[in-house]
Amino acid sequence: MAMTLNIGSVKLTKWQLALILGTPLAIGLGTYAVKRWTAAPKGVDGEKKRPKAKIEKQAISLDGTAPDKELERNQKSAELGEKLSPLKEANNYKTEGNNCYRNGKYDEAIIFYDKAIDKCPKEHRTDMAIFYQNRAASYEMLKKWSKVKEDCTASLEFNPRYAKAYYRRARAHEATNDMNECLDDVTATCILEMFQNNTTIMFADRVLKETGRVDAEKGMRNRVAIVPSACFVNTYTRSFIADPLQTMEVPVPSESDAPTKGFLRAHRAFLKEKYEEIIPACTEEIESSEAEAQYKVEALLLRGTFHLLCGSYAESQQDFDAILANADADPNLRAYAYIKRAALFIQLDQREKGLADFDEAERLNPENPDVYHQRAQILLLLEQIEPALAEFEKAVRIAPDHAIAFVQKCYAEYRLSLLAGDQRRLESVMHTFQNAIDRFPSCVECYSLMAQVLADQQQFPQAQEYYEKAMKLAPTNPALIVHQAIMVLQWRGDIEMAVQLLNKAIEVDPKCELAYETLGTVEVQRAQLKRAVELFEKALLYAKSQAELVHVYSLRNAAVAQINVTKKLGIDMNSVSAMAQSGLMPQGVA
């Protein structure tokens, strides 16, 4: 297969949804960006300038007037005996205030802005908005946050589309930890600025992550356990090389035997994909007498595994802890309790505990390939590519015929060759991928990972061929369908086809978190914000890890904020998107 491999143009991100519409998006992986931002923000004088590294310390400019010249004109008018109009007199006070502000005399600046506000006729709404906003700037420098909020609110009463007042009030809300109000105000700023200001976008991104983190912590405490789909469980179990729960020999009862119970019933339910029966059957085994309980440790391991898959993390840890506290338990079962508890800790964002459990599992059995394979997958997720590759190599050395470990090692080599910028190594990796497919022609992961690599390389027609081959092997795998949808957006920008594919993914697996999340992101791009919120709420039901919850809550919060703001401002997000794409700015938004 002839192809051109491109190192420089590939941009891999932790969350593949950043590939939506082929644009690297800053806010919530597609939630805010309705137009790619290709230029640095401009200063008052129109010259491009780079945003400062620390947003907190970046001062917002005042109204952009040239104070010295304005004051000079007013002084000349006074010398000539001209009587200043109330508006001109108010602007004279404002100019004096601006000079004080720029010289760090904030209390004096406030006095002049007071005079400007008192003098200005209230029908001059734009000027009144500026005076209040400038006084808020002085209060901000004095960290009088309630005064900042009051003055920004007054400014917005005179000019409801004054982006600078929204931005300053957002910073005041952040200072007082009123993050939902902060999110609404920074969202209003983004919309009024047509998503053109990188500094505002970076601020919004920070606020979204914080609101997502807070909501995720609550969500983890209140989440309802949900039995996962058969496809999800199958993907999980296939990731193991020698899990004793899958390899152990269990007596198969004949039709004439009494009904099975306890672990034997649980294991039979596992094989028949009757997953809702597993936890009760394991509990029956665990709570039975020592004389009756032949598989108590196995039952703890299986129940702990399904508590983990259902998102019942406290219960899962209790079961794994019980195994590890039992010094008489089979060492292999204890090793897998460590491996699976490690995954649990990673899900809870307790990285150090997770990696320590992998070390304990390795100490128990250094020749267990799953120690290295599972640890490699975690390291790959954590963007530790080189250590991940070393772990994949250990797993493949012990289990050379395990297709998934082999092809995931290829993928880690691919990622590392990109990081190194090594074109020759990249070409060698692509040949290794093809060898993996030739060697393991029935392994769906070989085709799907090859397709993802080709899509990363923007070799879309070839990627589509491999996705089609993967789909023949696993026609009801929702993740394959979702990745195809993402590629269709990258490749052709065909939103309708992508939506069809994503709805198909949900149809084949109504519990597929990735499908709801991706479709929600697409609906945001189509300005269907209420529908997007519904989809994100669905995704939250099936999200498993703390990181996933933070991410999806951030997406949802961004969409909710856009609904709130556009309703308040009377703005249609469809028109915002269209104007942002064309570069037009509506009147009154300045």
From TrEMBL:
GO molecular function, one term: protein transmembrane transporter activity
Compartment(s): Mitochondrion outer membrane
Residues making up the signal peptide according to the UniProt record: none
GO cellular component, one term: mitochondrial outer membrane
InterPro entries: TPR-like_helical_dom_sf, TPR_2, TPR_rpt
Membrane topology label: Single-pass membrane protein
Domain of life: Eukaryota
GO biological process: protein import into mitochondrial matrix; protein insertion into mitochondrial inner membrane
Main localization of the protein described in the UniProt heading: mitochondrion
Sequence similarity: Belongs to the Tom70 family.
Protein name (Swiss-Prot/TrEMBL): Mitochondrial import receptor subunit TOM70
Source organism of the structure: Drosophila yakuba (Fruit fly)
